[in-house]
């Protein structure tokens, strides 16, 4: 018997799990698999950063990613798909899985909408689930196509599943403004670190999908083989021997499939476990580019006070300039060990420069420009005017430009990838943003691949908030090796989401960007995680979250390019799109057509 996935069951008269002929699922089995899909979706979200602080599985700490958990949870979905009898069952199960996964991944949006936006709890929760359900449609479509187009061969099925799943991930990250937060590849930042400089997060996700399919097929085939050995063949009295032979052939085929799945699984696992050699080979064209002494500031200003003149604004306008003044004095006293760069987070200064006035700027600039204080400052702040529009920006101030009376010589970076609903309002959604008590508005978008800031012998490239979620956009700055950044800096403010797992998730995302591009990533945030990540994706220094302080560290800049930086910098993600579409087209074209019924 043959299901929509080909020979998913043993060639006996019954499905090994349901006990019913294919096409007639056992009563209650549909509910069982839906529960499995919900559980698997939650585990898929937990794999990016374990969210439960009071307990975690052995070998996994709260906030850490788990590549094995991501593969195992996706394998549960594959098992659910292997036991569908109609394509619509596969679509439904994949949609349930993806909705549970995505809602469990970015549930913290509820905090910003309810706690700080003033939406009723039920409406904020509904908005999160609706967003997750909308994005889950990509994965439901992928499952439906898998059901309709899957070839007979298990190996080809695995390839098609990985390609379709990756296409769904790409579509989620590209269409409808793009929101790829929580893509499966991010959970592989440790397990598959070797692959990051070569194929990036989507390639890592494709490999994980292959492993998940191989694992599910191996488990399913082994279970079918055991059941076929335990359940005697049904034979009517006087039935010919071929019936028994057919049953025995089914057991042999199931055993063969189990062995094939184990071989595929072993081959993929061996490529993952080689680890450091592959990663180092992927960064063979990068080299050390000198050291940079940095201070990363974490103001820990509560979000509900951040824009209040008497509380949060006053704290910011007092504490950040104090830290810059201390840094300038330290650099003047000890030019060999003092800081060369001070970084303040996104909107550290929550007012326009004109609103701050000379009383604020003159002491700050005078401190930076004092003789012998060779320190630069990178500050997050809004820029613009009512007539020209506003940008979420960063200013780079160095001693030479600090002495100028006007900021025309300051380095400026304007955020390119804006947050929907936060920094721009999608068409037809003004009514939704009007329901919230958050100062939302339409910001202007900065250019892609803006020039880096040349300071202290480094080329420093800022990115703001979740811009480091888009590796292909950061890679656009690597098209010319002579001007490519040597240090990446992320300025963020995750106080909108309180002390949630969003902080841990964002840290793993930054780690993967460092791996892909072969560059250190400096993170300066309001409440966490303020950290230094080296070019190997390792966190070398980190401040405790939800505290006020500065992180003092020395980071090594890097020059050269990884394979990912080269191809993504030139073509973006188009090579991944083309590769996946080609795999699907080739495997679908080799699927044998069904014979027409006699007499039709």
UniProtKB/TrEMBL annotation:
Its EC number is 2.3.1.269. Pathway: Protein modification; lipoprotein biosynthesis (N-acyl transfer). It holds the Pfam family LNT_N. PROSITE patterns: CN_HYDROLASE. The keyword Membrane applies. It is a multi-pass membrane protein. Residues 1-22 are annotated as: Disordered. One of its GO terms (biological process) is lipoprotein biosynthetic process. It comes from the Bacteria. GO terms for molecular function: N-acyltransferase activity. Keywords: Acyltransferase, Cell membrane, Lipoprotein, Membrane, Transferase, Transmembrane, Transmembrane helix. Catalyzes the phospholipid dependent N-acylation of the N-terminal cysteine of apolipoprotein, the last step in lipoprotein maturation. This is Apolipoprotein N-acyltransferase. It comes from Hydrogenophaga aromaticivorans. The gene is lnt.
